[in-house]
Amino acid sequence: MALLEVRDVHSYYGNIHALKGxxxxxxEGEIVTLIGANGAGKTTTLRTICGVIKPRQGSVSLEGExxxxxxxxxxxxxGVALVPEGxxxxxxxxxxxxxxxxxxxxxxxxxxxxxxxxxxVLFPRLKERRNQVAGTLSGGEQQMLATARALMAHxxxxxxxxxxxxxAPVLVESIFETIQEINxxxxxxxxxxxxxxxxxxxxxxxxxxxxxxxxxxxxxxALRNNPMVQKSYLGIE
Amino acid sequence: xxxxDGIRGGLITFGIILFLNLLGLPLTAESSIVPIFxxxxxxxxxxxxxxxxxxxxxxxNASVNGLLIGIINGIGLVIVTYIFARMQANAIRVNQVFAxxxxxxxxxxxxxxxxxxxxxxxxxxxxxxxxVLFAIAGLVxxxxxxxxxxxxxxxxxxxxxxxxxxxxxxxxxLVFFALFLSLRIKGVKIGxxxxxxxxxxxxxxFVSAALFALRAARPGKEQIALSIxxxxxxxxxxxxxxxFQNAVLGAVAIFVVMGVGLNVVVGYAGLLNLGYVAFxxxxxxxxxxxxxxESYVLVTLPAFNGVTFWIGLxxxxxxxxxxxxxxxxxxxxxxxxxxxxxxLGFGEIIRLLLLNLRDYTGGPGGxxxxxxxxxxxxxxxxxxxILYLGIIFSGIVAFITIRLRDSRLxxxxxxxxxxxxxxxxxxxxxxxxxxxxxxxxxxxxxxAGALYASRQVNIFPDxxxxxxxxxxxxxxxxxxxxxxxxxVLGSIALIGLPEIxxxxxxxxxxxxxxxLVLMMILRPEGLLPSVRHQRELRGEEMTExxxxxx
Lengths: 237, 550
What we know:
The complex is a heterodimer of chains A (237) and B (550).
Chain A: E1 4-13, E2 16-26, E3 31-36, H1 42-50, E4 57-62, E5 65-66, H2 72-77, E6 80-83, H3 95-102, H4 109-122, H5 124-128, H6 139-151, E7 157-161, H7 169-184, E8 188-193, H8 196-202, E9 205-210, E10 213-219, H9 220-225, H10 227-232
Parallel strand pairs in A: 3-8, 3-9, 6-7, 7-8
Antiparallel strand pairs in A: 1-2, 1-4, 4-5, 9-10
Helix pairs in contact in A: 3-6
Chain B: H1 4-23, H2 25-29, H3 33-48, H4 59-89, H5 103-109, H6 114-118, H7 124-143, H8 150-161, H9 163-182, H10 195-216, H11 221-240, H12 243-268, H13 277-291, H14 296-300, H15 309-331, H16 336-356, H17 358-361, E1 374-375, E2 378-379, H18 383-405, H19 408-418, H20 420-425, H21 430-456, H22 466-479, H23 484-500, H24 508-522, H25 531-538
């Protein structure tokens, strides 16, 4: 059974039909990427999975369990953690407190302590700056913090919304390396990206989204070699 | 050398002094007007010459500009006073236009009484004195900006970090307390006729200094020893003070309880609540209606003899919590300004209901003869008893709040204040968390309300006006948002000090405004801020590491 299954979802913003019968599946242990242009519905898909938007039609299920009746915070308990677009860290709290907030719903203190060690190994920079106010971190460090904060929830499925946005190319590469590292440690990842080039390098599979509909799907390899993807998203004529 | 700032500052300050003059401050403040104006000029000089970020003003420059501000004000006031005096002497009726410009008025400025003015005493010696005082005040104000610059602050920090400075801070409250005690020795006169006011001031200074000392004390033995000493002295105070002092201190304590409650809502959860007085009023009226002999409840139920304070208190708190929850339901999805306006309306609705449900609440006639709290057969319905209860209540709510702050709930409030959406994505149940913040605040306010009803004996809808909400909000901001000790300081500054400044009581609101403006410019984090807020506003690193996992 797929870890995440989004089936024929129709989501609306008021009267605007944003997702038109979208279906995706994410298997345990995968990195799946969702690529598409501005306004294709990438973020809306994530918001629908998180429960921020309830679909009018279709279903989102985690390990076969329909998420429809659950509230946003309850979906977090189920093991879905979001790294929001634009990072959205708690800029006036310290790095340590931000991470602590990530583990808010957990009560297993030993497990939390373990995860602190784990994220500090993944992101040594955060360890150095643990008592610094998060708003004073650089953009790249803030992205690390947002990712680490989501990891602190010890999620089974991590949703990453545009982790490369506004970062220098060298930082983008290191962020994607970390994503692979996190995945190797056993966290399933759904990655939403405009930077299709990078996304298709780290992902196992991918979906191409256009105006609320999936127009293509397949392994990352296949998508990389697809002429339409090359032309529209990779800039290869 | 730039004198532009001095001239500009002098004109601004003079405009304000002139405005206060036309409002009639000299007449209200009588003989204390000269010191008030002098202090104002000094403060304005300090404020206006404050260094801007990155450019430090030299001591000479600040002093000369300060002096200039003082001189402009001195000369300006003398000229204006002279013109008005001439006009009056020539029977030109300026006072029809400016109602406050009367002979005794100009006299007060020159240090003369009405009789002396009418007897034709010269205003010149007095006016010369004012001019000189203003000049000195400007000079001192300008020169003292050195203490507010980065360099000056560092120097001050190094002094208080030295062991001499450290112990001075610890001993200071005891000095104030000793001075207060010395007032009680017969034959020693420090304050003259106004001795009880001076005593009150010394108690305020003692409490404030004690809070700073506790903050400065090294954690461990030193802090514990100091806490015990201060606690004993605090418990002794109501025994040593007179009726007037106890009454003022009691009001301060009640506002501390309310401040602690509002601090949970505004300081922690970041939900701007401008209708906080509603819960205070509901607490007071619940207890009043259930206990006062002529209240609607007791009159319609002849078999019911009314509740005692100790039964009424939990009922009042419960009713407060229920209304708090009812208020939350419509405002759940609101943030910031919208929330402020809805709560503001809620506060007014409750007051208008109390005023207009005449049959049930007594309308403008209020609820009369509310019984006093009885503890083990002892009547606590006097200022001393109320003060003791106020201190105990404050202690309890402060304890609860500190425990809540350090709990998961406290953290979720902070996350909520920072970013509601992300807080939800962290697994925080927004509805429950907002509800608990409002309910906690409402419970504290309702408890304070019951105590207040018992203290006032008679309560009226006008006791629960919007101004109370604003007062409480101001006092937590002045004390330092999020800081419990700060609330005590804020309460002393906004509720206690006006009693000392009785002679200028009408200007309390002006003073409020001025104090808030000054505070927000010079010390935006409040008088005694919480470590977190200080860090947030100054963007500094935490001085001490938080508990960590390794």
